[in-house]
Amino acid sequence: MDSMLIALSDSMSSKAVLEYVLAMAWCPEDLQVTLLHVFRKQSGGEALMGQKFMKKQPARYMEVLEQARDRFVEKGVPPENITLLMVTEPYDTIADGIIDQARRVNPSLVVIGRKRMSKAEEFVLGDASIKLVRALEGMAVLVVKVS
């Protein structure tokens, strides 16, 4: 049975990931899908938004995961083959969270989105997709690039 872990948020790259995966040819009744959202530690700017704002975030992202699940069900994946995984314990980086959860779930494919970045942005911010490819030995990693 094929299994994939798909890291999602409410970003444009996550929407592109979802559309790309849904357009792929696979046998829906045999597919096991884990839809994942991980939180990273708060930045100073997020802390300034207040606790009320931050408390709403898990519900906001759970809605994203539920909508993605519904799209997979529409494509014929049995609901019992879809796991929603919301990890609210924050990681230092999103990449660290995806790596940790992928090692726990052990899917055959990890799918993430990547927005276009300048060389300077890559240097300063790092590239999560490269970190995943290097860290997840024995797993295929599909990076969907978005402009």
From TrEMBL:
Residues covered by the UspA domain: 2-144
Record's signal peptide: none
Xref: InterPro entries: Rossmann-like_a/b/a_fold, UspA
Top-rank taxon: Bacteria
Pfam families the UniProt entry points to: Usp
Xref: SUPFAM superfamilies: Adenine nucleotide alpha hydrolases-like (SSF52402)
UniProt name for this protein: Uspa
Native source species: Desulfoluna butyratoxydans
